[in-house]
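Subject: design request, 273 residues
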């Protein structure tokens, strides 16, 4: 005997309810799985991003240390160059002061003189020597690439980019070029005038400076050339000291930033202090 319609209705309703509950449970299950997968992917991207930031930060710290080390080399070179330049200036300043003396040895440097060195025993024989400023090359080009890791610490970047502007360096190089012009003029003077008046020229021969002492003293252009060069050396010393002071200030600032880097604490990629 078949069940009546009234008996079938509760059974159908039950089946529909079961289907709905099953569908809802499946939706919840897949939604939970989706949320889980989404969180895993998002977290993996987050960790990867933190890892890149950490690697960039470590790269920046190492480059900053290299820059500081190289700036200290430039500072040492500048101080040594300034000391040598000052020594040269004093030698030729003394030569200029003796110019009018009636003494066959005015173009000699007395071995008892505190300024004496064997290279400049005959100061005017080494007058054509040039010592252009040639500081060690730096890593500034790395910071000019503009990649993100070099912009993490804006203050350090500003200091480094400011160093590369080179206003004081431009002054030093300009004075070097002006000095070379004076030396070239002296060479032309010897070639075009002295050889005509004196014959064979040997600037390294002490007897040459004794024999032709009066002629050289009366060469007013040479005296003027020497006076200009002494003034250039004096100006160069002033700029060199300014540059060394600027380097000292920048090194101190970069050192403080580097110390802050070293004091940071990390657990894997996460900074905790």
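Subject: RE: design request

Done. Sequence follows.
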């Amino acid at each position: 005997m078949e069940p009546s319609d009234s008996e079938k209705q509760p059974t159908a309703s039950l089946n529909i309810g079961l289907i709905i509950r099953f569908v809802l449970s499946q939706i919840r299950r897949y939604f939970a799985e989706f949320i889980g997968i989404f969180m895993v992917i998002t977290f993996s991207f987050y960790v990867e991003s933190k890892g890149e930031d950490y690697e960039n930060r470590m790269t920046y710290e190492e480059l900053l240390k290299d820059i500081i080390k190289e700036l200290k080399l430039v500072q040492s070179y500048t101080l040594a160059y300034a000391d040598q330049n000052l020594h040269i200036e004093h030698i030729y300043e003394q030569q200029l002061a003796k110019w009018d003396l009636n003494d066959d040895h005015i173009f000699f440097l007395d071995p008892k003189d505190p300024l004496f060195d064997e290279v400049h025993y005959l100061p005017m024989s080494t007058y054509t020597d040039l010592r252009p400023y040639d500081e060690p090359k730096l890593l500034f080009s790395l910071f000019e690439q503009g990649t993100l890791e070099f912009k993490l610490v804006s203050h350090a970047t500003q200091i480094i980019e400011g160093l590369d502007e080179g206003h004081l360096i431009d002054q030093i190089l300009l004075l070097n070029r002006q000095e070379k012009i004076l030396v070239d003029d002296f060479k032309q003077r010897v070639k075009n005038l002295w050889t005509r008046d004196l014959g064979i020229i040997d600037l390294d021969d002490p007897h040459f400076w004794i024999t032709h002492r009066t002629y050289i003293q009366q060469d007013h252009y040479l005296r003027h050339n020497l006076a200009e060069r002494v003034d250039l050396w004096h100006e160069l010393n002033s700029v060199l000291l300014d540059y060394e002071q600027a380097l000292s200030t920048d090194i101190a600032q970069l050192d403080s930033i580097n110390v802050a880097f070293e004091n940071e604490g990390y657990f894997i990629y996460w900074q905790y202090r």
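The helical segments are 5-97, 140-143, 154-163, 167-198, 206-211, 213-217, 220-263.
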